[in-house]
């Protein structure tokens, strides 16, 4: 189960795409869900990080990316006030 969970995080695949060698993906997901809920994963991560740090096997350098991803104005969920009840972009004679 642990190998399946680690494989999933290392590759970034969806749970349902987990190879059959790890067993049913639902079972692996349930184990992960339980271990994450009770704090077991936090303990495992702390222990492994401390062990790797003691062996100088961790590179603690940091890289920061300042890329900006601009969104279109209509991608927001903010409502726009128009000043009237409805704005028509067509000719009023054609709208009637």
Element layout with pairings:
Blueprint: H1 2-11, H2 25-38, H3 40-54, H4 92-95
Q: Mean pLDDT, nearest integer?
A: 82
Strand content: under 5%
The major sheet is characterized as: none
Number of strands: 0
How many alpha or pi helices?
A: 4
Distance between the termini: 66 Å
H/E element sequence: HHHH
Q: What is the overall silhouette?
A: extended
Which structural class best describes the helix and strand composition? mainly alpha
Tell me the radius of gyration: 25 Å
| Fraction of helical residues | 40-55%
Uncertain segments: none
Describe this structure in words.
The chain has a domain at 2-54. The chain is mainly alpha-helical. It is extended, with a radius of gyration of 25 Å. Helix content is 45%, strand content 0%. The mean pLDDT is 82. The chain contains 4 helices and no strands. The longest helix is centred in the middle third of the chain and has 15 residues, at 40-54.
Give keywords.
96 residues; mainly alpha
Short description:
Helix content is 45%, strand content 0%. By secondary structure, it is mainly alpha-helical.
């Amino acid at each position: 189960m642990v190998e399946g969970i680690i494989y999933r995080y290392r590759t970034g695949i969806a749970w349902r795409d987990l190879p059959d060698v790890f067993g049913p993906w639902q079972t692996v997901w349930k184990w992960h869900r339980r271990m994450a809920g009770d704090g077991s994963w936090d303990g495992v991560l702390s222990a492994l990080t401390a062990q790797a740090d003691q062996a100088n096997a961790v590179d603690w350098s940091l890289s920061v990316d300042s890329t900006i991803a601009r969104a279109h104005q209509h991608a927001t969920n903010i409502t726009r006030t128009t000043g009237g009840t409805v704005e028509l972009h067509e000719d009023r004679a054609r709208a009637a």
